[in-house]
Every structure is written in C-alpha cells, then in structure tokens.
Amino acid sequence: MNLTKEQVKKIIEKVHLDLDLDYSSKYPIIANYTENHKDFKIDIWGGGYDYRDPEAVGDNGWGIYTEWVIIIDDKKEEAVMYGYYTGRFLIKLNENGKYEHVKRVGINKK
To answer: How many domains does the chain have?
Structure first.
C-alpha cells in the first residue's frame, strides 16, 4: 500500500473540485483499499463523500448530492476513474496538474 487514507481523501477532494462534480464538504470522505482488485487487476482505493447521515450535518434529507465513486490507482498514486450508477469515466492528470476527462467507458445495466 503506497498511499495513506489521508492522501486518498485529498485526491478524492481534488477530483471533485477539478471535474466540477457536485458535492458537499460538510460530509466526511470514506475510502477503502482493495489489493489486486478482481476487475482492475491492480491495487486500488475507492471512495467518495459519505452522504448516509444528512441530519448529522444539518441537511434535511437524502439525494441532495450525487454519490460519485472515485477509483485511485495505488501504485500511480492518482485517480484513474470516477463513476455513478449511470456510467464510468476514465480520468487523468493533465500537464497543469488538474484532473480531466479521458472518455466514458461504460454504462451500468439496470
């Protein structure tokens, strides 16, 4: 494991900011490590903002923010993908150090 949980949380926050994804920093960020992920065949971190308890931060209900899931390559130490139930998108750091879209890679089946 190359990254710490705190480093992963900073990357997740940066992805949201760089890609202008809707979020609320009032909520905590969750992050989980998976060694040799069965689909990606690499060690990854997955995470995002945890919207499970809106009342704890003063919000009145569910569904205010999109629950983006950010995938981070632990070896490269950078985010490589983000997704929602509508699909997944490859991302990369550009020459200015900001995350940008590469392409859409899939639509989840309902």
So the answer is: 1
Phi, psi of 41 (to 5 degrees): 60, 25
Instruction: Spell out the per-residue pLDDT of the chain, length 110, in tens.
Output: 999 999 999 999 999 999 999 999 999 999 999 998 888 888 999 999 999 888 888 888 777 788 899 999 999 999 999 998 778 999 999 999 999 999 988 765 54
Beta bridge mates, 46: 32, 71
Please state the pTM of the whole predicted model: 0.89
**Angle in degrees, CA 79, 82, 87, rounded to 5:** 155
- Domain span holding position 96: 5-106
